[in-house]
Design goal:
Helix content: 25-40%
Strand order of the largest sheet: 3-2-1-9-10
Number of strands: 18
Oligomer: single chain
CATH class of the largest domain: Alpha Beta
Number of domains: 2
Structural class: alpha+beta
CATH topology of the largest domain: Nucleotidyltransferase, domain 5
Largest sheet: 5 strands, mixed
Order of helices and strands: EEEEEHEEEHEHEHEEEHEHEEHHEHEHH
Radius of gyration: 21 Å
Strand content: 25-35%
Length: 335
């Protein structure tokens, strides 16, 4: 996969996605690492490590180095990012492409600078940071570089970043700990409480995709779920329907809606008027939850839509800056 093209990187809580100029999205791997417990040596990255979740022996830990919009383990995050970038650009250090990097909103300034240094070590000439919500808005084709205002809700695995943008900057910003991981956790807790059954992360994610929703599905959908009976300790299979999983997720959805309302209430009147007209745009993988945009629209009486290619909006926003470096240079963080 060696190439000298410039790249855009979405360092997400759930996945790392890399766009290469002239080639499109060339890389997508889970933000997961497998580590040998005693030696602390890294055994596997990405999909190889993800497949081990729930199946590892006692001497192997599965680690997500990013959690809830923050870097939980900087050294592991840096190692993972270096490994992925090296795979994409190859070892042609004389080429040294540049990169636009979008990181979770909770990443601190010192961590950003350290990541830039790490990217130089991986073979990049220069790495610049792009605010994640600005990247999401660019990737969703929102027009916020002029005086018109717009609102984006970027729903990642670790949480949701809410931003009102105008004149190329973030005018109002908020984060809420509701995202794909929280949806999964709510499903796990619901099944444990109602059925005394424990399921793993991967099963919960599949239940969310198949049955989950911010609104009730019509017609109702059912599926068989296998987990461990917490009373007998033995495997158990039950049939669960989409109405039950809606009940498991409704508190998360309501918390998200309340946070969107709170941001709009803090927005200057003229920009709020623009949002009333243009609506709220949802980006990120968790925005794909069934009925979410409709539930938001019904609750706040403002149009809501899921962006095209929602899960890739952030990396596509990085790509836009790569394509238009002179006109979009002002959007990048000074580093």
């Amino acid at each position: 996969m060696a190439a000298s093209g410039d790249i855009g990187i979405d360092l997400g809580t759930s996945n790392v996605v890399i766009y290469m100029k002239g080639r499109g999205v060339v890389f997508r791997e889970p933000s997961v690492i497998a580590i040998e417990r005693e030696s602390e040596q890294i055994i596997a990255f990405g999909m190889e490590a993800y497949r081990m979740i729930g199946r590892t022996p006692a001497n192997i830990n599965i680690v997500r180095p990013l959690a809830q919009g923050e870097i939980a383990d900087f050294d592991l995050t840096s190692s993972m990012l270096r490994y992925y970038v090296s795979n994409v650009i190859g070892k042609k250090f004389f080429a040294r492409p540049r990169a636009i990097l979008a990181v979770p909103s909770g990443v601190k300034e010192l961590e950003k600078k350290a990541l830039i240094t790490s990217m130089f070590d991986a073979g990049l000439r220069r790495t610049q940071i792009l605010d994640r919500t600005i990247a999401a808005a660019l990737g969703a084709q929102l027009n916020f570089l002029g005086s018109y205002g717009c609102m984006v809700a970027d729903l990642s695995a670790g949480g949701t970043d809410l931003a009102v943008l105008s004149n190329g900057i973030v005018a109002v910003m908020s984060s809420v700990p509701v995202g794909g991981d929280q949806f999964d956790d709510s499903i796990i807790r619901f099944l444990r409480k109602k059925y005394n059954m424990l399921i793993g992360e991967r099963t919960a994610e599949q239940v969310k995709i198949t049955l989950g929703g911010a609104m009730r599905r019509n017609p109702k959908v059912t599926m068989d779920i296998t987990g461990r009976n917490l009373i007998s300790g033995l495997p158990k299979t039950i049939s669960v329907d989409s109405d039950e999983i809606y009940e498991a997720l409704v508190d998360n959805v309501n918390e998200l809606i309340e946070s969107i309302q709170a941001v709009i209430e803090r927005t200057p009147p003229q920009l709020a008027s623009d949002i009333l007209e243009g609506g709220v745009t949802l980006t990120g993988g968790a925005a794909m939850l069934y009925g979410l945009s409709e539930a938001i629209s019904d609750a706040i009486r403002i149009p809501s839509r899921v962006a095209e290619e929602a899960r890739d909006c952030v990396v596509l926003g990085c790509a836009k800056v790569l394509m238009n470096p002179s006109s979009m240079r002002h959007l990048l963080s000074v580093s």
